[in-house]
Amino acid sequence: MKRNIFCETRIRKNWLWLLVAVMALSGPAVLTSCSSDDDPATEQLPEEEKQLPEARIYETVRYDKEKTTAYNFEYPSTDPFGKPVTLSGTITVGDEVNAESPARGLLLYNHFTVYRADQCPSKGDLDVQKAVTGSGLITVSADYYGFGVTEDKQQAYCIAAANAQASVDALLAAKKLLPTLGLQWDDNVLFNVGYSQGGQTSMGVVRLIDQKYPDLHITWTMAGGGSYDIPETYRQMIASDTSGMPSTVISVLLAYNEYFQLGIPREQIFKEPVLSHIDEWVLSKKYSRSEIDDKVGSLSVSQFATPAMLDLNSSLSQRYMEALEKDNLCKGWHPRSENHILLVHNTKDITVPVENTENLRRYLLEQGVPEGNISYHVSNMGKLPNRPAHEMGAVFFAIHAIEKVCECLDIKVWIDPNLFVNAL
User: Fold this and answer.
1) Could you tell me which of 191, 229, 196, 207 has the C-alpha nearest to residue 357?
2) Quick one: which of 119, 141, 130 has its CA closest to 75?
3) What residues form DSSP beta bridges with 224?
4) 341: which strand partners?
5) Nearest to residue 171, comparing CAs of 221, 116, 124?
6) DSSP states of 161-205
7) Which of 23, 146, 227, 237 could connect to 195 by a Cys-Cys bridge, CB 3.0–4.6 Å?
8) How far is CA 375 from CA 1, 95, 226, 296, 323, in A?
9) What's 126's DSSP letter?
10) Which of 239, 18, 49 is nearest to 125 (CA)?
11) Percent helix, percent strand, percent coil in the chain, to nearest 5
12) How far are the Cα atoms of 203, 362, 364 from residue 330, in angstroms, in the given order?
């Protein structure tokens, strides 16, 4: 099976901005899932109830010009309630990796926000994953619950526990499937990468692995522009009365109401005209983030959220805030001291405030992660015409992430760094 390829193997400037755009599509993870023992997202099931079909590759997609092959696969995991479910994802392999040439390692890519059914890794263009071709790494990407083979379900948008579990289970499944393709890799090298929502998910993966998977070891986690301190993000959103990407706020509130069974009527959360168009605009999976934001028509949260949602003293807002505190990545878990984490943020970013990264770095240090194990970078790039600061932060993140991979693998940059400079 082949698809039309829109770009040549040689990286072009226009392609760079497409890469930046898709990385930056994940909006502010204003609210994410709870992770306490009482939460449905972390409910434990008897071992006999967890039996699901083994992982399998169901589709192979060849990209000739990029010299890349994608293997779409299904694998056993859990849904946002912690119940067994089959999910899907993609393994991406560049031609430099083959039976005679083992991969240098694996890269777990935690994707950005998507809304259209055809935007998830198993059905999308894989622009970021294709960019890894040439590095000698194999990329693994989960669709997350609500896309791919579960696209008939409401997506578990920004539910950190569910998305992190989907990513880790995809990684474990891929490690079983790769030998069936005749492929080998350095099992001591694992990069865990994501920007914006993907950055928040990447840190969710760190937390999950540190808590439940003692045999998994991440070489470097590279997280950019994520909402790690969820309550602080929510407070700043209310104080500024702006969301940056209103579709993300709407989707998070919907996901929490659905999967944490809050039982709050929509009319208590949303105002018109959003209230009457949620099913069509947000849940139909027919529109992209930018299309949904255009339909909402305002970056002002007070234009689509009820006063109760904007009042931190209201019982409604407090119900959400209590949940947010339970999944605050800046508290409540003990990271391994051997973690190596690259953190990148743009101080001009109004979509995801830089305080998220500052608070996370402070927490990691307080918990005993050595300062030398945390590579912390901030930029002060303002927006350009048609390029908001959040996307500019994605450029900054990409530069540092690529540099870190090259440093760890002792290889030359496989993407022309001048393209990043010229793009600015």
Assistant:
1) 229
2) 141
3) 195, 344
4) 221, 374
5) 221
6) HHHHHHHHHHHHHHHHHGGGGT--B-TT-EEEEEETHHHHHHHHH
7) 23
8) 41, 31, 15, 38, 30
9) -
10) 18
11) 40, 15, 40
12) 10, 8, 8
CA distance 350 to 300: 12
Q: Residues of 242-265 as b/e, b for ≥16 C-beta within 10 angstroms? A: bbbbbbbbbbbbbbbbbbbeeebe
The confidence score (pLDDT) of residue 383 equals 67
Q: Name, in order, each residue with C-beta under 8 angstroms of 363's C-beta and a sequence gap of 6 or more.
A: 329, 330, 331
> According to the model, what pLDDT value does residue 326 have?
79
Residue 66 C-alpha from the chain's centroid: 24
> What is the model's pLDDT at position 384?
66
Q: How far apart are CA 26 and CA 3, in angstroms?
A: 25
Q: Which two tokens stand for residue 421?
A: 């400079």
Q: Which residue bears the tokens 């693998």? A: 409
d(CA 163, CA 79) in angstroms, rounded, equals 9
Cα 70 to chain center, whole Å? 19
At 338 the pLDDT is 97
The residue whose two tokens read 């994953």 is 129
pLDDT at position 18: 43
Sheet containing 137-142: which strands, arranged edge to edge? 56-63, 68-78, 84-94, 137-142, 105-109, 190-195, 220-224, 341-346, 374-379
Q: How many residues can be counted in the chain? A: 424
pLDDT at 15: 43
Q: Which amino acid is at 68?
A: T
What pLDDT does residue 280 have?
A: 97
In the numeric block, which tokens belong to residue 324? 């947010």
Q: Who's near 300: CB < 8 A, 6+ residues apart?
A: 241, 242, 243
Q: What's at 148, amino acid-wise?
A: G
Which positions ≥6 away from 214 have C-beta within 8 Å?
Answer: none
